[in-house]
Specification:
- This protein is mainly alpha-helical.
- The chain is built from 24 helices and 5 strands.
- The longest helix has 59 residues, at 3-61.
- The termini are far apart.
């Protein structure tokens, strides 16, 4: 064989060996990538399990009353959905006027349905009652865990997986006292926060801009990218249908996508990308709207669009002011500090630094996303500040963005990493600093969250347990969720408290346990600024304006053909003198001698002086054997 052939053969062999080595390197790299991806997936699953377990403990520790909407915007209509018109559920004016979407209570109605189906008709009533009370809380715990998890995953998208900043977001979310106090409660704002954090995670942040020299494929070019956009839009649409003010978040992001004001990098918005974006927005929005209309049609019995009714009553009719008016700066001076507590300074630092995020050497996508989150916060807070009635929970969906903006600065303040290094992977070797201050901050969070969740305003929950237990002992043959014709005719409990100061049927449970409470419907049908509206007094205000007179004229008028006296009267301790003045004076014909049978401390402070002091239950003795049932 010639030397030429030998040389050629050696060259071919060498080339083949190099190709084999190259394939080996590629295969090894592919295997390494698969291992890393597998470990990352396992980490995220384990993280969710830990978060869910943490929130279960959280839910078990929350045993206090916060706001009526936790029950009357969610659990009462949910109870009505499952157990029907005769279940004793209290549907407030918002439901009779169709201001609320039935999607939110339908979630908890499903949890009631699961309990009913799982336990079966033979289950003991006390066991069934326990699970009916716990089912919505467990369901909401799942939503709270998802909110935490997706906030952390969004932080990983922006700052990088396993970076100190991403882990800081998770820790801040779990240790935030507002989250501990509210996230496992059945507020629509809590579900809205979950939907918002999920939608923000799936949102294609590359739409805001890419590196100027980037040669990769454009956004929304693969099915995976388009499906992620679809999921984001559907979740955002349901959040808006649930709480119409959520639209402010997406208007802010959409405005930045289209205008690119203050954004860095190269615009990825080609004609094709814009067409895909508008197409998916219309399709996904229509899907969510169609499902919402069908669900509301099924529940209300006719076609209705609750967000429109909500806007009409709250903006055009201005009925929200009936429940309180706040200063324009409420969200700045109280809202954000209450949401963020000890990390408020870092939130403010994050908001300011995000406006010049390019100087931090973060990727363009990250710096633009931080600007977008800041813009959503400013837009939402600014817009809601124009509305007279304000509550902290209205801006709760901003909490994931607030945590993400604060994360690098919290990390840099308490560790040796800089704000820029906090968003690098692999993370730098970290050392702790300012440990006493960190410990003090954690202690403040622990004390605030622990007190509010376990001690403050616990009496309104405890009194329902007392009344339900008394009913079970006195009427063991009427412990059914389907009232029969021979139900007790007595008024078992009369609540002379500010309206909606306790839960209702979701905790009383039994429809045969008949109860009555003062109402506080707003002046529907009166024009804003009219004399009729100015003169309007709801039942609660009339009672507290003249307690003895209200009992004599409205509750038990002498000329009434029959008197609906209660077995138990529930009220705060300051009510006792008025009750005794009535029963010893104008109401002496009832032959009532009040006897305190239960009371509980209701906290160190209150936002309503009418709720000051202990919550008390007085027995009237009206149905005692020695007086004879129906006497008086």
């Amino acid at each position: 064989m010639s030397s030429k052939h030998k040389t050629g053969g050696k060259t071919a062999n060498l080339r083949k060996e190099e190709e084999d080595k190259g394939k080996g390197v590629v295969e090894k790299k592919g295997n390494d990538d698969n291992i890393i991806a597998s470990l990352a997936a396992a980490q995220t699953r384990e993280a969710f399990a830990v978060i869910f377990a943490f929130r279960i403990i959280n839910a078990l520790c929350v045993r206090t009353f916060f706001q009526p909407d936790e029950y009357f915007q969610a659990l009462e209509p949910a109870w009505h959905m499952i157990f029907g018109d005769n279940s004793g559920a209290w549907l407030t004016w918002e439901w009779t006027h169709k201001l609320r979407s039935s999607i939110h209570p339908a979630v908890f109605a499903f949890s009631y349905f699961i309990v009913q189906s799982f336990l079966g008709p033979s289950a003991a009533w006390k066991l069934r009652t326990k699970w009916l009370i716990m089912a919505p809380k467990i369901t909401q715990t799942g939503f709270a865990a998802l909110s935490d998890w997706y906030t952390w995953r969004l932080a990983e998208r922006l700052y990088g997986p396993s970076t100190p900043a991403a882990w800081s977001v998770l820790l801040m979310t779990l240790l935030n006292p507002w989250q501990w106090y509210t996230s496992t409660r059945t507020f629509s704002n809590c579900l809205e926060t979950t939907l918002t954090s999920m939608a923000l995670y799936y949102w294609p942040w590359e739409l805001l801009g890419v590196e100027a020299d980037k040669r990769d494929s454009a956004p929304l070019e693969t099915w995976g990218q388009v499906n992620s956009l679809r999921l984001s839009l559907v979740l955002a649409a349901f959040a808006v249908l649930l709480r119409p003010t959520n639209v402010l978040i997406w208007v802010a992001i959409g405005t930045l996508v289209l205008t690119r004001a203050t954004l860095a990098g190269k615009s990825p918005l080609t004609r094709r990308v814009l067409l895909v974006l508008f197409r998916e927005a219309i399709l996904c929005g229509s899907l969510a709207l169609g499902l919402s209309l069908l669900v509301d049609r099924q529940y209300f019995g006719n076609w209705t669009f609750p967000p429109f009714a909500w806007l009409h009553f709250n903006l055009a009719q201005d009925l929200a002011v009936f429940y309180g008016v706040n200063d324009w700066h409420y969200y700045l001076s109280q809202g954000i500090p209450l949401l963020c507590t000890t990390i408020t300074p870092f939130v403010l630092q994050g908001l300011a630094k995000s406006l010049d995020a390019e100087s931090s050497n973060w990727p363009v996508t990250t710096s633009n996303a931080l600007k977008a989150l800041t813009f959503t916060i400013l837009t939402t807070v600014g817009s809601l500040s124009l509305v007279s009635h304000k509550e902290v929970r209205f801006i709760t969906p901003l909490l994931p963005a607030l945590h993400i903006l604060a994360a690098p600065h919290v990390t840099a303040f308490f560790t040796t990493a800089t704000a820029e290094a906090a968003a690098t992977c692999p993370p730098p070797a970290l050392g702790w600093k300012r440990k006493p201050l960190l410990a003090a901050g954690l202690l403040v969070n622990l004390v605030v969250g622990g007190y509010l969740s376990y001690f403050h305003a616990a009496a309104p929950i405890q009194v329902m347990d007392f009344l339900r237990s008394e009913f079970e002992a006195l009427h063991p043959s009427h412990l059914s969720l389907s009232p029969s014709d021979d139900i007790p005719q007595e008024l078992f409990a009369l609540f002379l408290t500010p309206c909606h100061a306790t839960p209702w049927r979701s905790h009383l449970v039994y429809p045969s346990l008949r109860a009555r409470a003062l109402s506080c419907d707003p002046p529907v049908g009166t024009a804003p600024g009219s004399g009729a509206r100015a003169a309007y007094q709801d039942e609660t205000r009339r009672f507290y304006a003249d307690e003895v007179g209200f009992l004599r004229r409205e509750l038990w008028p002498p000329a009434a053909p029959g008197e609906d006296m209660a077995r138990y009267i529930v009220g705060f301790e300051g009510l006792e003198p008025a009750l005794r003045a009535y029963f010893d004076g104008p109401g002496a014909r009832h032959r009532i001698r009040l006897r305190e049978v239960w009371s509980a401390w209701n906290g160190l402070f209150t936002d309503d002086e009418r709720k000051a002091g202990r919550l008390v239950v007085w027995a009237t003795g009206f149905y005692d054997d020695e007086q004879g049932e129906g006497s008086g």
